Amino acid sequence: MRITTILMLLMAATLAGCVTAQEQRALDEAKCRSYGFNKKNDAFAACLQRIDLDRRAALRASTYDDFYGPFYYRPVIVRR
């Protein structure tokens, strides 16, 4: 009984971090509005772009390995 409860709480905590793309966009728009930007100007679009670029940079930084260094996508070109 106790292990089941702990597993249920662990699963609920794991799923609480999941956000759909639409929810993420709404959160980003709310953040830009909290900075004072209106939805119909270029500064609002720039704010959304900066948030997206920051998120991508954080993702790239999280793929760094101390032994091998950063991992980058390198396509393999096969010529016939």
Measured as a percent range, the helix fraction is 55-70%
Shape: flat
- SSE arrangement, N to C: HHHEE
Tell me, rounded to a whole number, the average pLDDT. Answer: 80
Q: Main sheet: which strands, in order across? A: 1-2
* Number of DSSP helical runs: 3
Alpha-beta classification = mainly alpha
Largest sheet: 2 strands, antiparallel
N- to C-terminal distance: 61 Å
Count of individual beta strands: 2
Assembly classification: single chain
Radius of gyration: 20 Å
List unreliable stretches of 5+ residues. none
List the helices and strands and how they pair.
Blueprint: H1 2-16, H2 21-34, H3 42-62, E1 64-65, E2 69-70
Antiparallel strand pairs: 1-2
Q: Which descriptors apply to this entry?
A:
single chain; mainly alpha; two-stranded antiparallel sheet; 3 helices; 2 strands; 62% helix
Describe the 3D structure:
The protein is mainly alpha-helical and 80 residues long. The chain has helices spanning 2-16, 21-34, 42-62, and strands spanning 64-65, 69-70. A two-stranded antiparallel sheet has the order 1-2. It is flat, with a radius of gyration of 20 Å. The protein starts with a helix and ends in a 10-residue tail after the last strand. The model has no long low-confidence stretch (mean pLDDT 80).
